[in-house]
Amino acid sequence: MAKKNPLVLKLGQAIRARRLAIALSQDDFADRIHMHRAYYSAIERGEKNITLATLQRVAKGLGVTLGALFADVD
């Protein structure tokens, strides 16, 4: 198994924290942003190195800017 990228892991954790703060399940959030739940789950686990376009979609669904998400990543 390949080692996960620490930056991708931290970004996934930041996304998860933001999703939990708005009290949505992974299923509900994935539906909100029109994404398959399994793919979204892999993002939160840091298993997907997503594109900026996908990250923008996630940020919009969370109601935050890309900058805010990146600020959550130490």
TrEMBL record:
Residues 15-69 form the HTH cro/C1-type domain. The keyword Transcription regulation applies. CDD domains: HTH_XRE (cd00093). One of its GO terms (cellular component) is cytosol. InterPro entries: Cro/C1-type_HTH (IPR001387), Lambda_DNA-bd_dom_sf (IPR010982), TransReg_Diox_bact_type (IPR050807). Pfam families: HTH_3. Gene3D superfamilies: lambda repressor-like DNA-binding domains. GO terms for molecular function: DNA binding; DNA-binding transcription factor activity. The keyword Iron-sulfur does not apply. It comes from the Bacteria. Keywords: DNA-binding, Transcription, Transcription regulation. This is Transcriptional regulator. The lineage of its organism: Bacteria, Pseudomonadati, Pseudomonadota, Gammaproteobacteria, Lysobacterales.
